[in-house]
Amino acid sequence: MSEENKPPVFLNFSFYKVDPKWRWINDMGKDEAAKEFASLIEVANTKMKVRTYSTLGLRADSDFMIWCISDTLEKTQVLASKIYTTIFGKYVAPSHVFISASRPSAYASKVTPGFMTDEKPMKYAVVYPFVKSREWYLLPFEERKKMMEEHIAVGRKFPQVRLNTTYSFGIDDQDFMLAFETEDLAAFQELIMQLRETQVSKYIVRDTPMIVCVNKGAEEIIKSLG
């Protein structure tokens, strides 16, 4: 099946903040809650791809993130519902939720997003919504394509940074969701600095919040929360 004819894959990036009351639970209760939550994530991973990340100490508005990659949005809803039925789930609330879908790029059709391969998640994921101006979409396609070629050429200089671009048009508030993966945050920072100097940058309206996430297991994340 060609890339154009493949059904879309849906992505959900859910960030959660943990209630400070969680830290007052006794250690035995925390251990049981961590195992229950980790088991839930393990089962969910048999029905879709589920990745868990810590944002503890990196953001004031979230402590961890769950990245779901599924053939339906309803599967991510089922997981969210089950989270709230767990012991740990009684102490968490979402702070950011972003959804998007896969589709072939109009400018680089041969590029396969990292999440659609069998590659293992890298240590860091930097996730953010991305909005371009309406003026961008009113430019002739060839003009946009030329500017995007410059943009893509900069990205190719950083093979240690894996790109996951997905599309939110019509299903969320942003145009795109970007999730860069890397083992080297300094390289990612240099990539972003160079992208700021491309012509496409003139048409960016918003690319925040930009959230650094550290790939960790569900049980490890809970045990790190104090």
Describe the protein.
The chain is an alpha+beta fold and 226 residues long. The protein folds into 2 domains: 3-101 and 213-223, Apc35880, domain 1 (Alpha-Beta Plaits, 2-Layer Sandwich); 124-211, 2-Layer Sandwich (Alpha-Beta Plaits). 30% of the residues lie in helices and 28% in strands. The chain contains 6 helices and 9 strands. It has helices at residues 27-44, 73-83, 134-138, 141-156, 185-195, 218-223, and strands spanning 10-18, 49-54, 64-70, 92-101, 124-132, 161-167, 176-182, 204-206, 211-215. Strands 1, 2, 3, 4, 5, 6, 7, 8 and 9 form a 9-stranded antiparallel β-sheet that branches. A hairpin with an 8-residue loop joins strand 6 and strand 7 (176-182). The longest helix has 18 residues, at 27-44. The radius of gyration is 19 Å and the shape is elongated. The chain starts with 9 loop residues before the first strand and ends with a helix. The relative contact order is 0.21. The model has no long low-confidence stretch (mean pLDDT 94).
Summarize the structure.
By secondary structure, this protein is of the alpha+beta class. It has helices at 27-44, 73-83, 134-138, 141-156, 185-195, 218-223, and strands at residues 10-18, 49-54, 64-70, 92-101, 124-132, 161-167, 176-182, 204-206, 211-215. It has two domains: 3-101 and 213-223, Apc35880, domain 1 (Alpha-Beta Plaits, 2-Layer Sandwich), CATH 3.30.70.1030; 124-211, Alpha-Beta Plaits (2-Layer Sandwich), CATH 3.30.70.
